[in-house]
C-alpha cells in the first residue's frame, strides 16, 4: 500500500519494470549467485517492513558482503537507473524500506561485525548489520554503555537506527542516536565511498555530513560502517511507578519532576486504555481503574539514584497520584518496565491489525494531545490507545482494528492525519523517532513548508543525481 495526499490507503502501483537478465548476471558477479534473489517467492518477504498496510514487491534482493560490493551495486544501479532501497532488519514503523518503485532492495545484514570497542576513547566501530542489542551487550561487557535504546533493539540494526535516527526509553537523559554518531563510512549512489566525521567528539571542519546522513532514511547514501560514542556504564539503576486519576495529573507531575532539576533516565506513560490492555495481557497487578500510569527511573551512583527516585515519588504524590512506589531491587525494576515494554503486544491482541504511529509535542501539551487523540478516535469510531515518552513529549498513538474492514482502515488513516495535524497545531511534529518513510510523507510539506521541501530536493539531487536511492521518500 501507499497513501494519497490525504492519507487514504490505496493499492501500490506496479513495482516497476522487471530487472533484466543481464543486470541479474552482473549482480551475481558482484556479490555471488547465492546472494541475489529475484523469484517471487524469495523476494516476497522484502515487499514490506514492520509498517502495516504498505507493500510493494522488489525486482531483486541483493545481500552485499563488503563496502566494495555495495559500491559496485550502486554504480551499476545508477548507470541503469534502477531504484535501490537500503534495508537492515526491516523493523522500522514508517515504511521507509518498502520498495515503492520496485528495483533492488539492498539488504545489509551480512555486514554484521563489531570491528572495535575502545575503552580509552569511549567508542565503538561496527558495520551496519550489527543489532543494537549486540552492540549494547559488547559495550556492557567492557563496562561501557551504548545509550540509544530503541524498542526493537533485539532486531533493529545499527545502520537502520542511524538511518531513522531512532530514539527509545533513555532519550530524555541520554539523547537519541544522532548524539552518538561520531563518523560514518558511506557509499554514494555513484559508487563513491566517503568518510564523514571520525573518532572525535569535537570536529567542526566543513559541513556536518554525519548529521545530515543520520536520519536521511537511505535517500542520500548507504551506510557501511559507523563510529559510535560510548559512555561509562552507570553503577546502578532503579525504577518507580505512579498511578494518577487522569493523564492531565500525570502531565503536571512530569512538569514538576523536570522543573525540580531532575533529569530521569526513564519517564514513560501509559493511558487508561493501555493499562487495561496490558493488565489483561500480562497480569502484572496494575491498577486498571487508574486514568494514567507514569514510570520514572534513574541510573548512576546508588545513593543518588535512591534519593532521586524518592523525590520523584514525592512529586507525583504532590500532584495527586493515587499511589507511587519505588522498586527495591533490579528484578522489581525490570518487572515495572515490563508494563511499558509489553504495551504493543498487549494492544495487538485486541484486533487483527495494529497501526503504531508517533508524534511529538512540547511536554506541557502531552495531556492536551492525548485528549485530542481520544476525541479523534471517538469521532472516527476507532480504538486508539496512547503510550510513550513523557520526558520528551513523544507519543505513540496506536490504533487496533480489523484489517479486513476497508472502511475501518480508511478511517484510521484519516484519523492519523488529524492526529499529525493536531501535533503540529500544538507546536509539535509529525514524528519524533519513527521517521517519515512513506507513511508520513503526505504530511511532510505541511510540517516543513514548500521552501524547505525544495531545499531537501536540491540536497537529494546533489547526493543522488540519478535519483535511484529510496525514491518517493523524503526529498524525492
Describe the protein.
The model is unreliable at 1-14 (pLDDT under 50). 53% of the residues are buried. The protein has 476 residues and is an alpha+beta fold. The protein has 16 helices and 21 strands.
* Main pleated-sheet profile: 8 strands, antiparallel
Question: How many separate structural domains?
Answer: 4
Structural class: alpha+beta
Ends apart, CA distance between termini: 18 Å
Low-pLDDT parts are 1-14
Helix fraction by DSSP (H/I, runs of at least 4): 25-40%
What is the CATH topology classification name of the largest domain? Uridine Diphospho-n-acetylenolpyruvylglucosamine Reductase, domain 3
Radius of gyration: 22 Å
Keywords:
476 residues, five-stranded antiparallel β-sheet, Alpha-Beta Plaits, 4 domains, eight-stranded antiparallel β-sheet, Uridine Diphospho-n-acetylenolpyruvylglucosamine Reductase, domain 2, Uridine Diphospho-n-acetylenolpyruvylglucosamine Reductase, domain 3
Q: What's the layout of helices and strands?
A:
Layout (H helix, E strand, L loop, with lengths): L1 E2 L5 E2 L10 H11 L4 E2 L2 H4 L16 E3 L4 H14 L3 E4 L16 E4 L6 E5 L4 E4 L5 H9 L3 E2 L12 H7 L6 H4 L6 E7 L5 E5 L11 H5 L8 E8 L1 E2 L3 E9 L2 H13 L6 E6 H11 L9 E9 L1 H17 L4 E4 L3 H12 L1 H6 L4 E4 L2 E2 L5 H14 L3 E7 L4 E8 L4 H20 L18 H5 L1 H14 L13
Parallel strand pairs: 4-6, 5-6
Antiparallel strand pairs: 1-2, 3-4, 7-8, 8-12, 9-13, 10-11, 10-12, 14-16, 14-17, 15-16, 15-20, 18-21, 19-21, 20-21
Helix pairs in contact: 1-3, 8-10, 8-13, 13-14
Amino acid at each position: 500500500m501507499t497513501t494519497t495526499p490525504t492519507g487514504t490507503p490505496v493499492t501500490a502501483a506496479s513495482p516497476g519494470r522487471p530487472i533484466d537478465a543481464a543486470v541479474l548476471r552482473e549482480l551475481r558477479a558482484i556479490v555471488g549467485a547465492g546472494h541475489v534473489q529475484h523469484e517471487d517467492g524469495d523476494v516476497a518477504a522484502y515487499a514490506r517492513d514492520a509498517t502495516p498496510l504498505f507493500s510493494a514487491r522488489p525486482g531483486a534482493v541483493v545481500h552485499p558482503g563488503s563496502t566494495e560490493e555495495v559500491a559496485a551495486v550502486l554504480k551499476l544501479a545508477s548507470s541503469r537507473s534502477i531504484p535501490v532501497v537500503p534495508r537492515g532488519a526491516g523493523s522500522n514503523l514508517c515504511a521507509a524500506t518498502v520498495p515503492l518503485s520496485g528495483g533492488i532492495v539492498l539488504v545489509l545484514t551480512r555486514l554484521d561485525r563489531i570491528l572495535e570497542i575502545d575503552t580509552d576513547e569511549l567508542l565503538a566501530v561496527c558495520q551496519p548489520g550489527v543489532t543494537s542489542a549486540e552492540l549494547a551487550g559488547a559495550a556492557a561487557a567492557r563496562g561501557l554503555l551504548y545509550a540509544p535504546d530503541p524498542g526493537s533493539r533485539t532486531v533493529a540494526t545499527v545502520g537502520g537506527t542511524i538511518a531513522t535516527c531512532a530514539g527509545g526509553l533513555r532519550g530524555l537523559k541520554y539523547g537519541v542516536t544522532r548524539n552518538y554518531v561520531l563518523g560514518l563510512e558511506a557509499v554514494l549512489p555513484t559508487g563513491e565511498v566517503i568518510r564523514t566525521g571520525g573518532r572525535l567528539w569535537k570536529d567542526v571542519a566543513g559541513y556536518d555530513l554525519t548529521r545530515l546522513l543520520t536520519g536521511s532514511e537511505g535517500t542520500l547514501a548507504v551506510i557501511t560502517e559507523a563510529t559510535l560514542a560510548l559512555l561509562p556504564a552507570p553503577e546502578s539503576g532503579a525504577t518507580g511507578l505512579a498511578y494518577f486519576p487522569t493523564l492531565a495529573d500525570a502531565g503536571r507531575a512530569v512538569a514538576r519532576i523536570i522543573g525540580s532539576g531532575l533529569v530521569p533516565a526513564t519517564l514513560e506513560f501509559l493511558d487508561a486504555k493501555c493499562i487495561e490492555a496490558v493488565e489483561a495481557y500480562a497480569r502484572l497487578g496494575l491498577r486498571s481503574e487508574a486514568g494514567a500510569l507514569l514510570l520514572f527511573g534513574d541510573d548512576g551512583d546508588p545513593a543518588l539514584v535512591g534519593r532521586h527516585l524518592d523525590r520523584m515519588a514525592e512529586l507525583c504524590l504532590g500532584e495527586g497520584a493515587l499511589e507511587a512506589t519505588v522498586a527495591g531491587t533490579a528484578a522489581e525494576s525490570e518487572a515495572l518496565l515490563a508494563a511499558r515494554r509489553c504495551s504493543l503486544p498487549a494492544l495487538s491482541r485486541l484486533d487483527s491489525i495494529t497501526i503504531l504511529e508517533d508524534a511529538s509535542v512540547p511536554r506541557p501539551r502531552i495531556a492536551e494531545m492525548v485528549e485530542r487523540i481520544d476525541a479523534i478516535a471517538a469521532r472516527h469510531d476507532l480504538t486508539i490507545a496512547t503510550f510513550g515518552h513523557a520526558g520528551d513529549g513523544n507519543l505513540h498513538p496506536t490504533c487496533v482494528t480489523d484489517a479486513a474492514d476497508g472502511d475501518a482502515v480508511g478511517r484510521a488513516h484519516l484519523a492519523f492525519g488529524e492526529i499529525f495535524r493536531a501535533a503540529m497545531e500544538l507546536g509539535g511534529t509529525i514524528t519524533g523517532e519513527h521517521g517519515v518513510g512513506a507513511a508520513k510523507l503526505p504530511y511532510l510539506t505541511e510540517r516543513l513548508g514548500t521552501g524547505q521541501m525544495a531545499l531537501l530536493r536540491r540536497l537529494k539531487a546533489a547526493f543522488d543525481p540519478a535519483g535511484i536511492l529510496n525514491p518517493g521518500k523524503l526529498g524525492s
